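Morning!

As promised:
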Amino acid sequence: MKLTQLDLLEISQEIKQCYAPKMLASTPKLTLMPVAPKHLYAYWNLGNNKSIPLQESTPLPLTLRIYSASDKNNYLNKGYEDIPMNRTQSQQNVFLSNPANGGPYQASLGICFSDNFFDVIADSNLTQLPQEKPFTIQAKPSSRSLLTSTNKEIKADIYNNDSGQGIK
Amino acid sequence: MTDLMKHGFLSIILHAHLPYVRHPEHESFFEENWLFEAITECYIPLIGVLDRLQNDKVPYRLTLSLSPPLISMLRDELLQTRYLKYLHQSLELAEKEIIRTRLQPELQKLARLYRRFYKKTLAIYQDQYGYDLLIAFKKHHTAGTLKLITCAATHGLLPLLNISEIAVRNQIKIGIETFKANLGFSPSGFWLPECAYYPGVETLLAEASINYFFVDSHGIMNASQRPRNGVFAPLDCGNGVMAFARDPASSRQVWSSQEGYPGDQDYREYYKDIGFDLDLDYIAPYILDSDIRISTGIKYYRITGKDLPKEIYNPKKARAKVQQHAQDFINKRQQQIIDLNTTMDRPPIIIAPYDAELFGHWWFEGPHWLECVLRLASNPSNYVQPMSCCDYLEQQSGHQIATPSASTWGDQGYFSYWLNETNNWIYPFLHKAEAEMEQLVSDFRDLTINSLQKRALNQAARSVLLAQASDWPFIMKSGTTTEYANKRITDHLARFNYLHDAIRKNNIDNRYLTALEIMDNIFPTINFWDYLPSKNNN
């Protein structure tokens, strides 16, 4: 089949227009991702589960219950941290106040009732929290130098040093 | 102290990678210049270095990681043709510059240098290697001096894709398959994109017959057991796969703003390019759409110094500085080795990894520095012996067992450069596409699949992989060509959504599918069954 450059461009544009990514989920889902020591990132979708008491006139706060998954007794022994989540958002940075140093973590998103009953909406995946650094990091500057070439003049902010060039 | 006790190894690793920038739907496309600039300024000069070292019988050792997107682009006929056009244009501009600068002898001398440079580039690209630079790299690998390894399929940041083990497994597997299909052999080492490691990835690397990989210094220093040899010996992750760590000192000498060699005042200034400096009428044919100023590659000034008027570049002076910097680098490694030998139970190996694109693009003199370092290191009178990680592992045994800690070599040392307010929106979509791909393949498990469906499923897998490239969140954070990064993520996800929908509804349009196959022609032998969960669990 022979397709011209214009054919390709039109098909590409049509697909982009009609099939742009959309977030629709029928079932609740919670995903946890590692960012840095003590820092995770969570995103969620509450789905269309009508039993979730989110539409009540005085909605209870959404809570992320997060715990180390390296020791199963942790959770039972209340070795978890409850973090209030913004109900109007579907993603949030999560900063742990006193995490175990590194290791696997897991979380549940739910509603915490006054009698301490925790109604779970979704459980997360397991994620590896990076370890706190006793060793000083001398990270390389943001890599992939060619990708910082733009079609406009960049004022030296990537590989820039005192002499006007070099590496940050 | 005996000479043997002063003995140690230096392993320089260059990681060559660019995202898949190929746009057959356009006559020309700015971002394809990333590849063309890298070929001209980095890859061909590197090949020049390797050829000279070989001609002089220098017993150097160097490791080069070639990413699958780069491998695919270097082999792509459309990009080869477009690169040739780009190179001829550069040559034409250099010719024009020789005439324009006829009354400025110092500048004209440099214009002549650029003409020689482009002519030589053309000779290497066209005449010596017949448009296929992989032939050059393979030649040096076969000679035993260059060790070629590879990287994840589209340079996906594995710890952030690890919501699905299949996603990580396929990034590794398809990366290795692409390397093997183009280079003819399996790599023994693996470059984790951005040195991004998470505990457990070594299991998938072992499955793919990988012997070693690299992490940043803190990945080893914060390992599950205190590393008794610091970053100067690998750790066995417990399954026989070895983790080597970047040496902070040798990195700092090249990367640091305070101590880094590339910032020397005698080196060529990157930012002062005639594409920005000359009259628009004159430079129009060599810039974007004749009116958007871009780098042309022709630069006449040296760094000079902060807040000083830029002085004209003097290649002779720059070359002398290169020698000096190479000697300084080797001296410091020798001193390191002498110091380390008093505390280590085996000869130290200093791991010095860099982006290949630093050498020649930002640091014009970089390839020459690398050549000098490799020549000096290969001199038997030095205590620093160049060595590949592969050879080191063959010589040394009984490595300490420990699990490295999650880390990257990026800013702050973890994942925040690829996961922050500028780019976090992409991850729910990436994870969703991956999950839908796996579900789709799973649903087809017991069905008869016709050739159109097979093609569509394979193309859907390509779209998922292309969306997973770490380059897009990187660019979003760096704030440079963010519009392009957004476009690419959106395009690949939309293409996946289209294919997913068409496959589910059994409504695949051959014309549309063919268009997508032409536009995203990477991984020709991909097998969508790799996304089958049960297959991966076996």
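The radius of gyration of chain B is 24 Å.

Hope this helps with the figure draft.
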